[in-house]
Design a protein that fits this description.
Helix content: 40-55%
Number of strands: 4
Structural class: mainly alpha
CATH topology of the largest domain: Vanadium-containing Chloroperoxidase, domain 2
Radius of gyration: 22 Å
Largest sheet: 2 strands, parallel
Number of domains: 2
Shape: elongated
Length: about 425
Amino acid sequence: MTRVIIALTIVVFLFSPTIARADVVLDWNGIMLTTLTGQSPFAQARFAAITQLAVFEAVNAITRDYNPYLGTIIAPRGASAEAAAISAAHAVLRNYFPGSIQSLDAAWSSSLAAIPNGIPKLQGIQVGQATAAAMIARRAADGSGTPAFYMPTSSDPGQWQLTTSCSPAGGAFLRWRNVTPFGIRTSDQFRSHPPPALISNKYRFDYDEVEEVGRINSIERPPDRTDVARFYAVVSPVAAWNPAARQVATARGSSLSENARTFALLNMAMSDAAVTVFETKYHYNFWRPETAIRAGDTDGNPKTNPDPGFVPLITTPCFPGYPSAHASLSNAARRVLERVFGNRGHSITLSSPALPGVILHYNRLREITDDIDDARIYGGIHFRFDQEAGARQGRRVGAYVFRHNLRSRNGSDDERENEGNDR
């Protein structure tokens, strides 16, 4: 890629602005999430990764704290990192969401108004805009554009079948297995091991669990598990983990540069987990509880009792079940944030206007993924082994993204290498 050089034909003054307001990386992370409303969870992950990587690259071109992602942006010393972050996020979102241009332009002007006018501000704006253009160009042909669908070719037990939510086109997001990753090497790098055999005790045990607690009229499902099932049915991984990370980063007082890097790694990991999980899903084509429980007398396991009238609490997504996408994306996010912030000692509150009255409080990152696992099982759309496989896969993706991308130039990441493993 052509090297982008940002320079003004005027004198560059040394400038080191003090942050007298909320961190603009966190501000624009929130604006990004609002802009992404209505997108699929997997498109959200991709757009979020592009946006936050542009923000990181723009800030890092000025601060030079970490190894770059693109490595093609050169910024003048003294340029405003805040102006660069604002302009990078604004330009990326404006490109992909022309329907939001008016609100994005208003937010951009408001954010920039808090930065003193001068050469550093102008330089920062140019750095941010150039970085956004470079990131958009990098992802222009990443395989996410043309929809593709999967039509089952077999009705054998264990094979995924269209569920009641499906359109006649077939299984959705087939193309996502071919989307170019951001931080891992290939989509099959962390493919999950096969699901358990239908005749196994593991399959029967997990089958019984979701049959008992996942049906729409279950009397065995506690009210709080109904709440988390409904909450994470309307709140995507991107919409859960970005606010969680903002709360922790704010409490820690992380710097602009640190936050730019954290949110880039966080969203890279979730997007790469989405690519990975769809590669695995369509590799195994494993059926959902909605199909499996209605056809329990065909699976060869004498201990699985069929229920032709089984209806899950929440709507079954129209793609294969194994492994769980929510588990994969969320555990990738959790692994990155554990490496940055640690697992415990946090105060996180999650809520959604789509489900008023449900407010979830967490002190540990693992509590969020535990709730997400329960949400998919008590919601009736996943087996426990779907969640377990997705969790393992996501943790491996997150660990790899953290280990191999945006490394600190002073070696401070090395101490985190032994805080967990890839499994």
